[in-house]
Task: inverse folding
């Protein structure tokens, strides 16, 4: 019992900032969602209209949820719950892998296993830690909805639905940690399973039975395969059913039980799926720092590009659906215009602007990762191997930055291609199609800032690279992309690169902000490349 | 060029901590130089400066006639190194890492010479190059770096505790490989270690570092002069009085049925006639090992931190009595 308590506290201490930010983000997001919906769709009629549009547009249902009427609470739950559950799911799988497989991979787990704690107590401590985290998530979600002014019973049900879905993914993450030999593999597969759960319920919701008035949807069977779908089945605010939450809890507990059975039989540190052997010789293409950077980040870049492609395809399909819907409903146009906060002549252009902005965030994150990888290489010690060969620090940094720039462009290119195909397939031949390439190009300057700025931080303040990098991106997104919706001050919003991304309007594109950002990127890059020559390798 | 490495009054500070405190190190071309010191003495810091990965706070360093920080790239074409703690890319196989590091030097891995060398080194080190980096044990990671260094023809090899994690069999393989590169190419080797036997087998000269400065150095023989040779024989009724008064004899004592004493290593030959006259049996003469040398320099670190320096040739030995952890 003592060991359990010690290990639980150790997990809590290790995760104190990370867990706090996950829980707070989820709670704050719930609260902001209520506020934003109350502002944008203030009355029942507006919400009913948007719901009717949504239920007629499968693509919207995929991204939102299960429509259960236009009441403010039910509408908010429809709008935001699946996203909150998605975040809770990712929080749980990362948590589970961090305290199991990652610990075994680093060898720290053996230290603990060799003590009186043994093999079972660390697992129990991780389950306890995860369970408590989900209670916190449930509480934060409920408080967020309550704070926004929604009714208590429904808010508590919505909170429990978020926490219960999270618990199911805690089990999934633990199980993935037993199957895969690396934390990277376990994180990847369990995050993919969270996305699959999100998409399964999206598919079920989009193919569900729509009521006669177009205000409620009964989900089709795929939703019942997903922990997020089960959470939706609580019908928070309208039905307040708790029994569907038994399903995620049982799945989570079942996964934990299977993990227990595996733990009873396996050697410490082993996995069910063994790592594969590699080639004895390097492929001819692996020959310099650039190809090394590519090799190290290949998987991640492909992932970001698929994200961009999906965003592009979504733009095309959504754009078409909405274009046809709004011709009959001008009020909806106004509401949507308020929602996407962009300028443009047609609804398709609006959507392209809004969704490509999201792709721009993906591209920025992809660029940021190139710099973060530099720092990881340095901390791991592999940077020292490369830099002990005839490779200058400048060439090493330049190679990673070049790859980052290429991947930023690739993400936007995939977005544009996805949108272009889906619009053409749907028979859209409006000016919006031509705008696609311009709009994709518009996102590049802001994304490149997230390559050059972290590079400068990496050179000047290596220790802070990772934390500052993600913080810069997070703040940039909150200020620049959601700042308007959240009612932030103009000066605050102007701090974000995303605020200054060029916008294509009917009369052309104003690239003054874009050129400024390209100039800043150039200066920062030159500075980083020059300054890295004076920086020691492995510096703190 | 007859010096491969020369540092003069090298200092390296990490905040308040003086990792190097006036290090003077000299390694001649074509020699295997042992760089001895306990953990935290500054060995790794020195090697990182010599490789241009870290910059000296003050003082000068010259490696193969080049400035290690300013001419790092040029220097790295001529130097091969093995870090003390080898990290590998988790998703690259050992063979891929070795090939990549060779190609970074501008070499081509297609040549039969390279392939044959790599294969031979993998064989003698009993190394499987097809595993992924994350799957290797510490010893096997070490082998990746060793093979990557030994597969090249470098003028200078820098090894930071190269055999840590290797089993004794592999240590002897390493020893043989070092002798080979020196004989075949006339390369110079700087080998840091706290494993004394390894250096004793390999090095022709050693430098002993402590608290960031060289406290002793020279050939192994010259260092042995500073210590005593231990001599013992069976007591068997021998009259010990003549020994007790001899000036070359120190610490005469009885250990069971054996008589033991220490003699100044450079005066052992003066003691032998005395022993012959006494007709001793079961004579054992043990020359000082590096181990003793080492204790000679470090053994006092737990002694009282008094300023006992007398201005003799090793007076500085006693000035820095506190040992640090980490460098």
Result:
């Amino acid at each position: 019992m003592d060991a359990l308590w010690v290990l639980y506290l150790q997990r809590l201490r290790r995760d104190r900032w990370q867990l706090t930010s996950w829980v707070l983000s989820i709670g704050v997001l719930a609260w902001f969602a209520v506020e934003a919906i109350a502002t944008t769709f203030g009355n029942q009629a507006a919400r009913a209209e948007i719901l009717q549009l949504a239920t007629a547009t499968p693509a919207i249902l995929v991204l939102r949820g299960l429509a259960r009427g236009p009441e403010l609470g039910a509408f908010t739950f429809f709008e935001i719950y699946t996203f909150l559950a998605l975040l809770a799911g990712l929080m749980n799988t990362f948590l589970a892998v961090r305290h199991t497989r990652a610990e075994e991979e680093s060898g720290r787990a053996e230290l603990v296993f060799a003590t009186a704690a043994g093999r079972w107590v660390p697992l129990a401590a991780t389950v306890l830690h995860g369970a408590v985290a989900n209670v916190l998530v449930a509480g934060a979600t409920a408080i967020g909805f309550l704070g926004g002014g929604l009714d208590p019973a429904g808010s508590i049900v919505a909170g429990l639905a978020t926490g219960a879905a999270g618990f199911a993914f805690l089990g999934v993450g633990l199980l993935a940690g037993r199957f895969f030999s690396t934390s990277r593999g376990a994180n990847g597969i369990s995050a993919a399973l969270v996305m699959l759960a999100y998409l399964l319920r999206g598919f079920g919701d989009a193919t569900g039975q729509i009521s006669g008035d177009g205000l409620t949807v009964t989900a089709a069977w795929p939703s019942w395969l997903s922990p997020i779908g089960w959470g939706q089945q609580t019908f928070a605010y309208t039905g307040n059913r708790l029994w569907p939450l038994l399903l995620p809890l049982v799945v989570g507990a079942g996964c934990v039980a299977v993990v227990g059975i595996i733990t009873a039989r396996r050697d410490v540190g082993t996995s069910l799926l063994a790592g594969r052997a590699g080639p004895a010789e390097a492929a001819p293409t692996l020959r310099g720092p650039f190809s090394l950077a590519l090799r190290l980040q290949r998987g991640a870049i492909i992932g970001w590009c698929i994200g961009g492609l999906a965003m592009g395809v979504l733009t095309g399909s959504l754009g078409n659906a909405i274009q046809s819907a709004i011709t009959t409903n001008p009020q909806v146009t106004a509401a949507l215009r308020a929602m996407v906060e962009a300028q443009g002549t047609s609804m398709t252009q609006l959507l392209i602007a809004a969704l490509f902005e999201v792709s721009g965030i993906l591209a920025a994150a992809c660029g940021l990762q190139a710099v973060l990888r530099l720092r990881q290489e340095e901390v791991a010690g592999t940077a020292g191997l490369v830099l002990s060969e005839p490779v200058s620090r400048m060439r090493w940094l330049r190679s990673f930055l070049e790859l980052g720039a290429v991947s930023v462009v690739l993400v936007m290119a995939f977005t544009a291609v996805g949108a272009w195909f889906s619009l053409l397939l749907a028979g859209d031949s409006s000016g919006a199609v031509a705008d696609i390439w311009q709009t994709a190009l518009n996102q590049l300057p802001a994304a490149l800032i997230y390559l050059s700025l972290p590079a400068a931080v990496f050179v000047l303040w290596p220790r802070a690279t990772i934390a500052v990098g993600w913080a810069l991106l997070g703040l940039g997104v909150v200020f620049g992309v959601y700042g308007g919706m959240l009612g932030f001050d103009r000066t605050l919003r102007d701090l974000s690169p995303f605020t200054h991304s060029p916008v294509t309007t009917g009369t052309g594109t104003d690239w003054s902000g874009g050129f400024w950002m390209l100039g800043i990127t150039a200066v920062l890059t030159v500075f980083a490349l020059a300054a890295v020559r004076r920086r020691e390798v492995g510096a703190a | 060029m007859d010096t491969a490495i020369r540092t003069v009054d090298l200092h390296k500070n990490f905040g308040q901590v003086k990792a190097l405190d006036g290090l003077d190190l000299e390694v001649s071309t074509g020699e295997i130089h042992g760089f001895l010191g306990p953990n935290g003495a500054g060995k790794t810091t020195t090697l990182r400066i010599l490789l241009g990965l870290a910059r000296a706070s003050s003082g000068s360093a010259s490696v193969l006639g080049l400035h290690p920080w300013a001419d790092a790239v040029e220097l790295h074409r001529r130097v091969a190194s093995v870090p003390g703690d080898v990290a590998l890319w988790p998703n690259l196989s050992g063979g891929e890492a070795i090939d990549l590091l060779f190609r970074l030097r501008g070499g081509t891995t297609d040549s039969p010479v390279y392939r044959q060398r790599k294969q031979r080194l993998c064989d003698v080190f009993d190394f499987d190059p097809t595993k992924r980096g994350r799957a290797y044990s510490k010893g096997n990671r070490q082998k990746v770096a060793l093979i990557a260094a030994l597969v090249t023809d470098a003028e200078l090899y820098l090894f930071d505790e190269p055999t840590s994690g290797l089993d004794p069999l592999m240590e002897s393989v390493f020893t043989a490989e070092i002798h080979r590169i020196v004989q075949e190419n006339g390369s110079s080797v700087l080998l840091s270690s706290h494993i004394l036997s390894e250096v004793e087998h390999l090095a022709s000269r050693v430098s002993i570092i402590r608290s960031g400065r060289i406290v002793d150095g020279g050939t192994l023989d010259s260092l042995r002069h500073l210590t005593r040779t231990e001599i013992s024989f069976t007591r068997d009724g021998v009259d010990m009085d003549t020994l007790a008064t001899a000036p070359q004899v120190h610490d005469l004592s009885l250990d069971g049925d054996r008589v033991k004493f220490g003699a100044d290593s450079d005066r052992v030959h003066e003691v032998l006639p005395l022993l012959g006259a006494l007709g001793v049996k079961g004579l054992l003469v043990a020359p000082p090992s590096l181990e003793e040398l080492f204790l000679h320099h470090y053994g006092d670190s737990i002694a009282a931190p008094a300023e006992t320096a007398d201005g003799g040739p090793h007076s500085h030995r006693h000035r820095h009595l506190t040992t640090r952890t980490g460098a």
